[in-house]
Design brief:
globular; Jelly Rolls; 8 strands; 2 domains; 43% helix; alpha+beta
Length: 285
């Protein structure tokens, strides 16, 4: 069976060095379950449908939108002239051309410290007046000059941040330890291995306690807890995208014991893996 689809920046961005892509689609057919190795902002400007993600099912109507970090999966279905505007940008831009977002409390919380921080693989749903966001998106969509593209992307993301709730006091940002990104890459590339904190720390030449501390500071989770969440997310993709038996899905993500897989998946999603597959394939509310 093929793995869940992953859309890659190397195939999407017409100018890889720029790392920005905008598009507009009208959907009447369901899309495949997919994730990306870049950020995506998607919002509805017309029609209706259902948006499916690790967070469950949500109605997709005018004004609804989603911001997805790299690694977060989603799909659309029950589409009736569902009009979607997309803005995709490379994660590397946050450390370069979009670094100014760190100085805005809302954007800083969303992209650098909150649910969309790279290691958290999060997704944010929003419901916002369409006109202001669409006008900002349209200006970006019509840009051809690289410098103007970056400037308009900053304006678009800043406009988006103002429509989302932010903690009254945004916490002071702490510099992320480079070992966190290395640990994430190791876990993602070899999730089937029987990782322990000790074996992961050994690969990174760090003391286990130190790795646990810096990893939790960056992601909010201990390394092995983060791995469990990663495995559940990938399992959810496989359940929707393939016809693999449930037990085989567990093996594919690193849980060869069906009982352990069943417990972990239920703890993460509140229902069994077979119920999850049945509900989201059949469109049960």
């Amino acid at each position: 069976m093929p793995p869940p689809s992953r859309y890659k920046a190397s195939h999407l961005f017409r100018l890889p060095q720029l790392g920005i892509h905008t598009s507009r689609h009208i959907l009447n057919d369901p899309t495949v379950v997919h994730d990306h190795d870049f950020f995506e902002v998607a919002f509805v400007t017309g029609g209706a449908g259902v948006h499916v993600s690790a967070s469950g099912e949500q109605q997709a109507q005018c004004g609804h939108g989603w911001i997805l970090a790299p690694g977060a999966w989603h799909a659309y279905r029950n589409c009736q002239n569902l009009e979607i505007c997309n803005c995709c940008f490379a994660a590397s831009l946050l450390e370069r051309d979009l670094a100014a977002l760190r100085h805005d409390a809302g954007a800083n919380h969303i992209f650098f410290q909150g649910p969309l921080a790279l290691e958290r693989r999060g997704i944010i749903a929003f419901n916002s007046p369409t006109n202001s966001i669409f006008q900002s998106w349209a200006a970006l969509h019509g840009s051809s000059n690289s410098l103007i593209c970056i400037a308009r992307l900053l304006l678009f993301l800043g406009e988006l941040a103002t429509s989302l709730p932010v903690p009254h006091r945004a916490p002071l940002e702490k510099k992320r330890h480079p070992a966190v990104a290395e640990a994430v890459e190791l876990l993602e590339s070899a999730m089937q291995e029987e990782w322990t904190l000790k074996s992961l720390a050994g690969k990174l030449h760090l003391a286990p306690g130190y790795l646990a501390r810096v990893f939790k500071e960056a992601t909010g989770l201990a390394p092995i807890a983060w791995l469990h969440r990663l495995r559940c997310e990938r399992a959810a993709q496989l359940l929707l995208q393939t016809d693999l038996p449930v037990a085989a899905v567990g093996v594919r993500v690193g849980w060869s014991d069906p009982n352990l897989f069943a417990r972990r998946f239920r703890a993460s999603y509140g229902i069994s893996a077979s119920q999850y597959r049945s509900r989201f394939r059949a469109g049960e509310n």
